[in-house]
Design a protein that fits this description.
The chain has 262 residues and is of the alpha+beta class. The protein folds into 2 domains: 7-47 and 164-261, Aminopeptidase (3-Layer(aba) Sandwich), CATH 3.40.630.10; 49-160, 2-Layer Sandwich (Alpha-Beta Plaits). The chain contains 6 helices and 12 strands. The protein has helices at residues 7-12, 73-90, 129-149, 169-183, 202-207, 241-261; strands at residues 26-32, 39-41, 44-47, 49-58, 62-63, 98-106, 113-114, 117-126, 153-160, 165-167, 188-190, 210-216. Strands 1-12-2-11 form a 4-stranded mixed β-sheet, with helices on one face.
């Protein structure tokens, strides 16, 4: 999946100053595989920030029949994978969680070769600046120490992507009330917990108070739990685009009326 995002370059190019007056609020809606027509959001952290981890263990390769003549990076990398999974439950508060998912492993291209290096790629999600700073520190510490135990070295490339999507609490309370008044309270649900997916609207919410909202768009008769957003088999009901547009228009006009009333 492409994850470059458009919000950050748009902000850099002046989208928040384009109207010639300060932006007072920002709203966004993301469709998802959920109960058709249901709006969900919450104040505070709504979606995780993400980082990409590229980690390489450097050793000294050779023939698989003579491992004693090598410094095999593969067992070291395997230990790192297990340690990363253990780390998330032992170094982080359960109320400020992180997710580390190792998604790629790369080593030798032949079955009888011990490689010079072995690599992993991991996707990381976090809900605070403090946790991602600690995560980077712990990942580096774990990789370097395990590599050293195997007479290898570790190279850690840790790149933070999108920040945490943080809804303004006051704006979110008003958004829930206003969506309920337009679409009915039965279609509006306040979320209990943040999602660990990531969103580049987070850059906008760093600059402007606002709220990001989810809208369930699974067609009638289809189990909303069957396929998630990024499945190639997911299906959305385009008929909800009207509700999405109406929701954004109502929120914008109501917020401007608030400004006029002072």
């Amino acid at each position: 999946e492409e994850v470059e995002g458009g919000a950050e370059p748009m902000i850099a190019e002046g989208v928040l100053e384009a109207a010639g007056v300060p932006v007072v609020a920002a709203y966004g809606i993301h469709v998802e595989a959920d109960v058709r027509g249901r709006f969900t959001t919450k104040g505070g952290p709504l979606m995780a920030g993400f980082a990409d981890l590229n980690l390489t263990i450097h050793g000294a390769g050779g023939h698989s029949s003579q491992p004693q003549a090598t410094r095999d990076p593969v067992p070291a990398l395997a230990e790192v994978v297990l340690a990363l999974n253990t780390m998330t439950g032992r170094s982080f508060d359960i109320f400020d969680p992180v997710v580390v998912s190792v998604t790629q492993l790369e080593a030798a291209q032949a079955s009888n070769v011990i490689p010079d290096s072995a690599k992993l790629t991991a996707s990381i999600r976090f809900l605070s600046a403090e946790s991602v700073a600690l995560l980077q520190e712990r990942v580096t510490e774990i990789a370097e120490n395990i590599a050293r135990a195997h007479r290898c070295t570790a190279e850690v490339d840790f790149q933070v992507g999108f920040p945490v999507t943080v809804n303004n609490p006051a704006e979110s309370t008003v958004v829930l009330e206003r969506l309920g008044s337009v679409f009915g309270s039965e279609r509006v649900v306040e979320m209990e917990h943040p999602r660990m997916g990531s969103e580049d609207f987070s850059f906008v919410l760093q600059k402007v108070p606002g709220t990001f909202v989810f809208l369930g768009a699974t067609p009638e008769g289809i189990d909303p739990d069957a396929e998630t957003n990024h499945s190639p088999r997911v299906v959305f009901d385009d008929g909800l685009l009207g509700d999405q547009a109406a929701a954004l228009a109502h929120l914008a006009f109501a917020r401007l009326e608030d400004e006029e009333r002072g």
